[in-house]
Fold these 2 entries.
Entry 1:
Amino acid sequence: MKNIYRNSFYNLNKAKRILEKNQILALPTETVYGLAGNAYSHKSVKRIYSLKKRPQKNPLIIHYYNLELLKKDAEYDKNFLRLYKKFSPGPLTYILKKKKKSKVSKFANAKLKTIAVRFPKNKIIRSLLKKLAFPLAIPSANISTGVSPTDPLDVVDEFKNKIKFILNGGKSLIGLESTVINLSSKPAILRPGSISRTQIEKVLGKKVSNVTKSKFVISPGMHKRHYSPGIPIKLNSIKPDYKAAFIVFGKKYKMKKNMFNLSKKSNLKEAAKNLYKVLRKIKKLKYKKINVVKIPNKNIGIAINDRLKKASN
Ligand code: TXA
Ligand code: MG
């Protein structure tokens, strides 16, 4: 595919020049693929919203190489530093208070007083961030409310030739979006991910609440329908409905044509890595309905169930 570029010194420099011209490209992170633009540029940020057809009031995550640039953009405390030391770079996003002097475009954080920040671990995006004098605003590289991409072809699937430059990092290591924690007031998980609440509580030495189920929308992206393949999904099924695709987990299933196994080894990490690919495949095969078996609600299974729940709305 002509718009997919392999990771090389030459291509990273090309990516750098694209971003410096305030244009948009797609790139890998350890969670999912993202659409990246200069977070300090109104033009870049607005372009991301229009490409994704994303509502203006749903803010983006700003991706940094390390603490150096962040200091100018956000305020942080001891809780942040403890978590940063343990989990960053990695799949954890922090909601912090935005500094008045911050250069991050107000459109990137939906004119809120807070800002979401992350330090990705994938080595391609890290080499790129290291070359840049600005952080990157990066949402997942899918049309708003859809399924996140976990390889370069998924990005092509979403945007066709509208994205001219996609850096190839192979299949996403984790396959589900980062954990989001609010640190701008009492610590609370806004979106579960591969880093669990229990792991975070251990580092902070205290209980952290979970507001993903809250009636009050705290994270603007917590609106109900999300991560959706655009087909009705029924959860906790024992067997598939007539002509439905059946998503299963574990070894007790005899494979049939309509059956898609997230992990024959009953491995939740493997299931997380496969989930979005399977949803995309089922949509391509034109199934009109999806049934999913019960997935164990522990570790990254909590994040899998969160995405399935939202996809089923
Ligand atoms: O793993 C990830 O986080 C991926 C990769 C590409 O880094 N990115 C990602 O971005 O999932 P996106 O835009 O698809 O999701 C960002 C989430 C949304 O739920 C959004 O509402 C929330 O972060 N968010 C961003 N800024 C926020 C803020 N100031 N306060 C509360 N929630 C915020
Ligand atoms: Mg997204």
Note: The mean pLDDT is 95.
Entry 2:
Amino acid sequence: MEDLKTRAIDRLRQLESVVLPSLLLCDFGDLKTEIARLEQAGIQALHLDVMDGHFVPNLTYGMPIVAAIRRLTQLPLDVHLMISNPRQYIAEFVKAGADSLTIHAEIEDDVAELLDMIRQHGVGAGLAVNPATPLDGLDAALDRCDLVLAMSVQPGFGGQKFNPVALEKLQQLRASRPNVMLEVDGGVNATTIRRCKEAGASLFVVGSAIFGQPDYESAVAELMAALES
Ligand code: DX5
Ligand code: ZN
């Protein structure tokens, strides 16, 4: 089973541009329909925003919802752990069905060691970096991750304004870490997504620019068109 999970993250690695809807602003009262609508819109992976109300001032969901989403779709599940103590939950999120687990550089733990632990579970290991956090001093962690998530908003809420500091980090990482997949998250929409691609991202997390729209298919088509413009 673990080999299959590794292939999920490697499936994403083969794709030039992947829009990942962030399951934060979706209708949690009807996940089955929401996920079917996203698949119908051509979505190839989902981004799950797990928040603990401690690392970020918002509280969303944990393993039971990840497991429920796993039962609803075969799409790769890119799980963003905005939690203070991911060490305690790595095995459980993998068991729930995560295909990649992204932890934050800002937590009070040995991030490099945790990234190794995540990879030992056979899933993709991601490192998220908040807008105010520089890349300096992260080399040990960067040596151990499959993807880097450059936050273009302060994590915790959807619908915030895009912070272009993420573009500088993407460019820096594109040059220094050509083998690491680059992901951007926060305020990504039809006007900001192209700059993110040009800066080096291939994974684009989108919340309100999809879930704030009446029709997911046209919202995704607009994002894909902007990527190619
Ligand atoms: C913020 C989350 C993002 C957010 C994106 O903490 O990590 O994934 O939901 O939402 P938008 O695209 O609306 O900024
Ligand atoms: Zn996120």
Note: The mean pLDDT is 96.
